[in-house]
Amino acid sequence: MDAPQPKITEEKEPFIPYVEEDNYPESLQPMLGPYIERMGFLPNALKLYMHRPEIAGTLFALNSNIMRDPSSTLDQQLKRKLGAVASKINGCTY
Questions:
Q1: Which stretches in the chain have pLDDT values below 70?
Q2: Distance CA 42, CA 29 (A)
Q3: How far apart are CA 40 and CA 67, in angstroms?
Q4: Measured between alpha carbons, how far is residue 71 from residues 15, 37, 49, 65, 76 in Å?
Q5: Does this model's pTM top 0.70?
Q6: Backbone φ/ψ region at 66: left (φ over 0), alpha (ψ -120 to 50), beta
Q7: Is 76 in a helix, a strand, or coil?
Q8: Which of 12, 27, 36, 46 shows the smallest number of beta carbons within 10 Å?
């Protein structure tokens, strides 16, 4: 079975506008710092999650537990590669 092809190959404007840095919810600030420090930027997906701070906090914690749990037996690079493969298989251009 062939992987689905992405429907959008280039996006000039997001379909759903990102939450601007000045409007990041105060309750999420402690969670955002480590992302920005580690990556040097805040991924667009996280900017979208902040439209619903009560959900964003749960998703940030889930991601952190999956990707950075010290008890995990999977290497973090392998987890990232698995995420990239899953995105490609599902036709995600992100």
A1: 1, 3, 5-11, 93-94
A2: 12
A3: 17
A4: 38, 22, 27, 10, 12
A5: no
A6: alpha
A7: helix
A8: 12
